[in-house]
Every structure is written in structure tokens, then in C-alpha cells.
Amino acid sequence: METYEILKAVKSGKISVNDAKKLLSLYSIEEIEGIAKIDINRRKRRGIPEIIFAETKELDEIKKIIKRTLEKSNSVIVSRLKKTDYSKIQTFAKKLKVKVKTGKKSSTLLLFKKPIKFQGGKVGILTAGTSDIGVAEEARLVCEAMNCKCITSYDVGVAGIQRIFPILKEMVEEDVDCIIVAAGMEGALATLVSTLVDIPIIGIPTSVGYGYGEKGIAALASMLQSCSLGLSVVNIDNGIAAGGIAANIANRTIRKKE
Known about the structure:
Order of helices and strands: HHEEHEHEHEEEHEHEHEHEH
Radius of gyration: 19 Å
CATH architecture of the largest domain: 3-Layer(aba) Sandwich
Shape: globular
Number of strands: 11
Strand content: 15-25%
Largest sheet: 5 strands, parallel
Structural class: alpha/beta
Distance between the termini: 18 Å
CATH topology of the largest domain: Rossmann fold
Helix content: 40-55%
CATH class of the largest domain: Alpha Beta
Number of helices: 10
């Protein structure tokens, strides 16, 4: 249970104060054989699950962290897996009898024990092109791990500007609480979307582009220089951060409505 859920349970009389104290006890940091210190209590404290940055870790280290984390919590995200480790972690998850969610063109996995209930807010996710999908899917996995329903539409960039209007109409009708926009090249889609709706927009510049301004530099500069208010920006290719921010916004919005 997250902190907010624990407090609600106390208020409704479902659990006692003593039980709540136990649930909120500070066993937040757990060290695994000198490899990593897991923030077990992050989910209770912030609503964000443990996220393993796998790019620089050995396969055995990743497995140990996954196993220990899932002993203490329902889910864990493994981000930026090496190609050689991707299928091996999926096989490892089967041995642990946990389920796996994957993302298109993404090297990130969501592992979980009990089914994830989409009782949180709603997040819209857009990409300018198909090259941006992997980063957007990374954000989606984080949002879903945080119990948010995601409405996605990919390849709707300004090269064919007419494509954006039907999906934006759907997102407004669905009353999404936040929209993530992943875009490379000049990154114009994030600014465009933020001029059309009264919804918080999170821009992810992606490392897609040619020559001068390549590797996301032009998209990052463009989004940071946007003249449209209501647009915030995360680092290049940082779908993890965008997903965490968007889901926090969406989930806080849901709480206000309760």
C-alpha cells in the first residue's frame, strides 16, 4: 500500500493506527551484497516503483536486484537492458513466476506479481515519428506501473500536422490529466500540442535527427526555448523521468476528485 492508501484505510477504519505504523515503518533502504541499495519504501513514499538502470550492470547483478525487490514489492522496472540481456531477463521472470510487460522498440521491462489495476489518473502519450516510439513506451511502462491508464498515438508529428487533431480531441474527451510528447528533429510537436490544450505537457526530446543538432540537441534546445506556456521538458530520451512526472500529476489529480 502507498502512503495515501494507508492513510485512507486508517480514516475509513479498515486498519488500526498500529497496523498503519507497521506499514509506514522505515525499512526503506536495503543493501544487496554490496551491489546496490534498494529504496524499498519509494513506492509507499512517492508512488514510484523501484527502477533498475540496467545499462551498466552485469546480468547477475540485475537478477539479484530484481529478486530482492520483488520480495518486498509488487513490481519493478528494468530500464535500458542490453540486447543480450533482454530475453534472458524475461526468462528469469518466468522462473520467478512473475509477469512481464514489454514496450515496442523499447529495452525497458515492467515485472510484476499481482495484476496492475489502473485506478490512477489518465496520461496521454504522443510521438512525432516512429523513431520516438521506444522512448514513449518507456514512459508508458512507468505510468502503468503507477496505476495510470495510458492513451497512446504514435507518428503524429508536424510533417503531417492534420494527424494530431483527432487524437488530441480523443484525449480531451477522455479527460487526460497530463500529456507526454516525444519528438526528435526540431521537437516542434511539443510546442504545438501545448498551444492547443489546457493540459500539462511534458516534452521528451529524442536523439533523432541529422547533422547539426543531432542526437536530440536541437529538439532539447527547441523545447527549452518554447514560447508556449504549460510545457515542461525532461532530458534527452528520458522516458523514465517523463513517465514518473506525468503519473504523479495524474494520480494527484485523481485524489483531488475523490
